[in-house]
Amino acid sequence: MRRALVLGGGGVTGIAWELGMLAGLAEHGVDLSTADVVIGTSAGAVVAAQLACGLDIRRCYEAQLAPVAGETAPRGATLAVLKLAWASIRAGTDGQAFRERMCRTALNAKTSPEEERLRTVAGWLGKATEWPARRLLITAVDTASGEFTVFDAASGADLLRAVAASSSGPGVRPPITIGGRRYTDGGIRSPVNLDLAEDCSNVVALAPVTRAGGPVESVEQQRARLGASQVVVITPDQATRKVIGTRLLDPARRAPAARAGHAQAAAVADLARGGWQADS
Fold first, then answer.
1. Which of 231, 234, 273 lies closest to 37 in space, CA to CA?
2. pLDDT, tens only, 260-273
3. N or C: more exposed end of the chain, with fewer CB within 10 A?
4. Using one digit for the tens of pLDDT, what is the confidence trace for 150-207?
5. Contacts of 196 (CB under 8 A, 6+ apart)
6. 1: how many CB neighbours lie within 10 A of its CB?
């Protein structure tokens, strides 16, 4: 039996909700940190690196509850959403065309400097500075070609840069340079990239966002290809959605989202346990 934990994107509130959920599930006897493979996209890349590198998830969760000190939602978030919608309309059903448009948005946007973004992500990762022994996959998109990219320990990419690239929302965060090329958010291919777990017998996915509109593949589409019997997808409940609303990038929503994920864990523990322990 080969088990995968898949962590999807969803902004700063997505990070918080996932950490709350993981901490809560562990308290209910479901330890997803035992995954053989950890796959992270966008916000999920941050959590995936923390977990795969052995950071104490309870402490990571508690850090999400700290008061917000001087943090604000990034400029351009609303405009970025509008550009995403426009790119979806123009691209139709062509995923490659959509990614190319979003890559141009990423390259042309006025954002914070790349080094500033790297410092922020480094603060989140803490001691998670090197690729772990277990298999960790971090998704991104090459801004020069629009091609989907998966970084791992064998890729030669620095872990910090891989995570920063995966979580660099086009138009909001700067693309990140890796090996002389610039990369942006893996979420513009899929909010979860669940299909990367196709060689695993048991899969649990935490998906703060399941649809991104346009030609971006939904979790449901990818789940259908994997087979419903081998994958459990956990999404925010109504209480969480009410807490977050549309403010995925608002640091003020971080602690409420973390608490909501922690509280929701009790209701989904049996579901997660079933997916984790089911026979292959």
1. 231
2. 999 999 999 999 99
3. C
4. 999 999 999 999 999 999 999 889 999 999 999 999 999 999 999 999 889 899 999 9
5. 6, 39, 137, 139, 150
6. 11
